[in-house]
Here is the input.
Amino acid sequence: MATPPKRVPRIMHVTTKTWITKNIIRVTCTADWIKTLETGIEGAHFKLYVPKPDQTDATFTTELENGPRPDMRTYTIRHIRNHVGEIDIDFVDHGDGGPASAWARRCGPSDIAGFSGPGPIKLKDFYADTYIVAADMSALPVAAATLEAMPRDAKGVAFLEITAPEDKQDISAPEGVNVQWLIHPEPHVPVSQSIDRINQLPEFTGPVQTCIAGESGMIKALRNEIVNRRGVPKGDAYISGYWKIGLIEDEHQKVKQVEARASA
Ligand SMILES: Cc1cc2nc3c(=O)[nH]c(=O)nc-3n(C[C@H](O)[C@H](O)[C@H](O)COP(=O)(O)OP(=O)(O)OC[C@H]3O[C@@H](n4cnc5c(N)ncnc54)[C@H](O)[C@@H]3O)c2cc1C
Here is the structure.
């Protein structure tokens, strides 16, 4: 049977760009096809394709359709406004060393980017007695979207590691979830504060669900604690590496695939 043609990523245009906190750039993109996406998909990831500096829209569009594939990275839908066809994407500004961060820093109104997806929402059904949320800056969008979607009587903890006090942002979390902002000033040093705090939590009683994402070192330690030691079922534990110190995303994805095969 012939292989079906690959779906070409869809084009969206930048409308606004702003540093919402010291190290986070919010880029709002618009397109008519965004109106047709499901509602309530904040927290879902997608593949973002970005043009090279000075690349024309025509060349970028041709590359999206026919290759070579433009630079592609994974990001999260922070907000979606289906009625006007807009999404907000929150980028960690980690300088010009990666194509996605560099694009977010230089893009402006009417610039174009490509979109494939979205993937699934990370926590769709909420049934836990206790929620454990932990995120570094790259995973604040999924953590915030999850906290905002939780039932208002939810209980639990959220450890959010940010680069500077000025990176704290307003999140409408349930009152019963104790949100703690932890300052981790050097992103290229593995985080440890949320690991220490989660390790010190009392033994869980009743169902637990987690939304934990961030740098790969933190993820390994927390998967070990939550799934292996405390026995939270894998299906209730969203624990995902979003990037790895010293690796570009393609390299990190390969490492994740090898690790997933090894633990299957
Ligand atoms: C499901 C999923 C959802 C994600 N959602 C978001 C999101 O909404 N917002 C977001 O900012 N990131 C998000 N990420 C993480 C993002 O895909 C990676 O950080 C990606 O590597 C950024 O691409 P880049 O082109 O900027 O850097 P790359 O070219 O991939 O890497 C260049 C260098 O920068 C380093 N680096 C990469 N990310 C960071 C970082 N966050 N801080 C410091 N150094 C870094 C790398 O280790 C490497 O040395 C998500 C990842 C996944 C898997």
